[in-house]
Amino acid sequence: MTWKPVEVDAANAGADFWARYHKFRRLRHAERRPDDPITPDAVIEGEMKREDPHELHFRYEISKGDQMLSWFSAGATRPGAPGYDTNKHLLWVDGSVDRPTLFSVAELAALPGHSLDVSFSTHAGTQHHAEAGPLLIDVLAKVGPRFDRRVKNGELRDFVVVTGSDGYEAVLSYGEIAPTFGDRLALLSLKEDGVVLAAPRLVIPGDVGGGRDVSQVVHVELGSAPSGRP
After folding, report:
1. Which pTM value belongs to this model?
2. Which of 33, 125, 139, 229 yields a CA-CA distance of 20 to 30 A from 99?
3. Is 120:127 a contact under the CB 8 Å cutoff?
């Protein structure tokens, strides 16, 4: 069975959505932060329904009937908002992590660097580039991923949503890039063909097409699929 993410318009969502969402977030809270107080439903709804003049928000759910199976969201500085020109190069990493962090390009450049030659197909033909920057897995390690240790290999239930400044997104499984499992390279490139980029670019060497490349990455979120436990 193929699950399709459905975009959520929080401002106009009905009571059935909010019932699914609050049930889902309470389950995730019990898994991830059982000792912390949970934010009241009314507060969460108010924040999500409010129009943000400075940020763009993208929210998606995967549901079956009245049960939410997965949820992920992303945000980016709204073009034209105060601070957009000075903040568009910043990368926000959050989700199921211990230390949500706002990285500057300089802080990313201070992480262990990797240089890779990549080729991929586009509608205009095959492109070849030399990319350089830190690995996505190393950036995630800096923020402390939180896995559900109550299930075997809990990290294999996790996924990473990478969002560009224009709202374009790509989703990877954590196991795909984890060194102990898929060990697939995913690079946050800071330099392409010797030219310093204004903001990081997600590059995945070995992909046939370049669809999972994300330019001007502004947000990385670690999420988790349901465990299927009773």
Report:
1. 0.67
2. 229
3. yes
